[in-house]
Amino acid sequence: MSYPIDNSIFLLKRWGRRCLDALWLTLSVGALAGQSTSIAFESPHFRIVAGARAGRSAEDALRHLEFVRAALAELHGPLWVPARPVYVLLPENTKEFRKLVREDYESGLYVSGPRVDWITADPGASHLSEVLTHEYVHAVLNRVAPDLPRWLNEGICEYFASLRQEGSSLVIGSPPGNRLALLSRGRVWDRRLLEGRDFPPEAYAWAWAHVHQAAPAVFASLAGWQDLPWRTPRPGDDFRPRRLAIAFPAGPAPVRLRAVETEELRESAAEAFAVTPGESSAEAKFLAGLRLADEGRAREAVPLLEEAVRLRPSQSSWWLILSAAYGELGNQAGRRAAAQRALETAVTETERKAAQAAIE
User: Which domains does the chain have, with CATH numbers?
Assistant: First the structure.
């Protein structure tokens, strides 16, 4: 699943509940900071921090992600890579991973943090490579098509999750995990159902099926996805994968891993994932203010958001939410001032663009 927590004001306003879920995750996983980790590697485009028992999995994970990165760039061009570094967390075990997610069926998570993108996965997942690929594609889409509806975003991630090389062919669109079995259960999920807020496991299966039917046209112009001739899939449809010749028939260039300081990555992981409830009144006040703003109660939200940015003035996205709340109340001077502070505290290009748009 994808929970970008510091993207533009447009995304925060558009996704509403998803943003609240992301912030709930940020506020509820303080155990990570104290987790015992002892292995860290980096490859040309990734860094990973892993529990001591996941050492071999960590190396395999980075090699696989480098392969996926090269394959997607070869398929769809150089823009199909994340805009920022991707860090990977493999917790010590499934129990530790469960502290990072809300739903029992979740096996992975993508978080767009203050300075880098993070993905994490259950080290005990039966299809770990598929989970890592799914979450990595979230980071890619966060650059190339951040405005996609959730069902299409998740469907694309599912479509590429099983990406693999067989001989000189690249295999795309195989059903990840148990998706075909889920398609045969219960009702048929058309686009209207997929656009709802709830997204249980069956929704992932049907999102994958919709994208499978629309591929490869959907990737030719993601901006025009609404104009495609979408048809509701049926369980008996042809869902065979595509096989394409690839530019590296002998496999991608070998990855030379380099050990890095574990403490550096552990601190970064704690920053991205972990703030213990009650430890930070700033996060608590911001979450409460965001919830009220999302419910259209801007007058009640503003005092909480003002206190949050007073306690944590370096959070650009918080200033953007405050700016929007001021705007809802007709306070244009406050709106522009908060947007200016968002621009001054912006770290990423996305934050800067969002702040500039809010000022205008």
Answer: 2-259 (no CATH), 280-351 (1.25.40.10)
Whether pTM exceeds 0.85: no
Distance CA 220, CA 229 (A): 14
Q: How far is CA 113 from CA 5, 49, 140, 142, in A?
A: 7, 16, 14, 12
Those residues whose C-beta lies under 8 Å from the C-beta of residue 301, and which sit 6 or more positions away, are 289, 290, 291, 292, 293, 325
Label the pairing between strands 164-166 and 242-245: unpaired
pLDDT at 274: 57
Residue 173 corresponds to which amino acid? G
Cα–Cα distance, 11 to 98 (Å, whole number): 27
- Residue at token pair 């303080």: 30
What DSSP element (H or E) covers 63? helix 55-76
Q: Is 39 helix (H, G, I), strand (E, B) or coil?
A: strand
Question: What pLDDT digit, counting tens, does each position of 281-331 carry?
Answer: 566 788 888 888 888 899 999 999 998 888 777 778 889 999 999 999 999
Per-residue CA distances from 243 to 55, 87, 172 (Å): 32, 30, 6
